[in-house]
What we know:
This protein has helices spanning 3-16, 22-38, 44-48, 52-64, 69-88, 94-101, 118-130, 138-154, 158-161, 191-203, 223-237, 245-258, 263-270, 286-297; strands at 174-178, 184-188. The chain is mainly alpha-helical and 301 residues long. It has two domains: 3-101, DNA polymerase, domain 1, CATH 1.10.150; 118-297, hpI Integrase, Chain A (Orthogonal Bundle), CATH 1.10.443.10. A hairpin with a 5-residue loop joins β1 (174-178) and β2 (184-188). α1 runs antiparallel to α2 (22-38), α7 runs antiparallel to α8 (138-154) and α8 packs across α12. It is elongated, with a radius of gyration of 23 Å.
Amino acid sequence: MIVKSILNEYLNQLIFVRKFSELTIKAYKEDVLGFVSFFKIENVVQLKDLIKNDISDYLIHLSENGIQARSIARKISSIKMFTRYLYREKYITEEDSKKFSAIKSPKYKKNIPKNLEHDDIMSVVKFIQNDTHLFKKDWQKSREIAIIMLKYSTGLRISELLSIKNFDITSQDFIVIFGKGKKERIVPLMQIVKDCLSDYVNKCPFEIGDLLFISNIGKVYHSRIFQKNVEYIRRSLNLPNYFTPHSLRHSCATNILENGGDIRKIQELLGHSSLSTTQIYTKVNNNILLEEYSKIMNKLI
């Protein structure tokens, strides 16, 4: 059997059955193709013929070419997942599978995300309001402030935030989010955030269609645009390097927990993949959740 054909079968299963994201699928595909291309492998027989020393040579090759330990560990994980699939589908034997499962990942230091202070967020908002270089128009300022306040107050992933469909901001106290694996959760909206969203919508010169947030030219607002804007703000204000889009999500979780929030509910709010229960908010009174959540966040914003 041709390895690339089997890889396509495997990726299709991840897409349609396990509901993996497009970025995750792309990473898995690149990792596996990089591995088989290094050994010029075309079929399963050639893959089975690899020995331990061959695999070690590949890991050395990655390291010598400047691939960091964290990235190497991810590539190894992708290879192991694919070979487990090969074993489950009986393309390789259990003995062959053990050869790949025995690959050891390099150790690397896991960086603990640092928390942003309330004053940092307010400084960012004030900077955007007064900036005339990148955010030249009032509606652009309002859009960026709305994104930052929404992200900081809810802990949404940037992909989730930029996928929000247009909705009636004045009448809704929460947003329904479809996160990783298409899992649904409900995220409460504070009044200050609703005000920021309304300000953006009212000032936007373009007709807002399917997606809530749009770019300067009325097109899709991509995550890379937001990342570049955050980089510009960080340099302009001389903020620490850990001021990133993800740090806003982390700060939301940390601030709520430090102010008495229940860790289980915060995990559910953020849609962490470690949760075993899905769609938990279909069973929870949304008004109670909103009241509890707002009491904590109102201390911070």
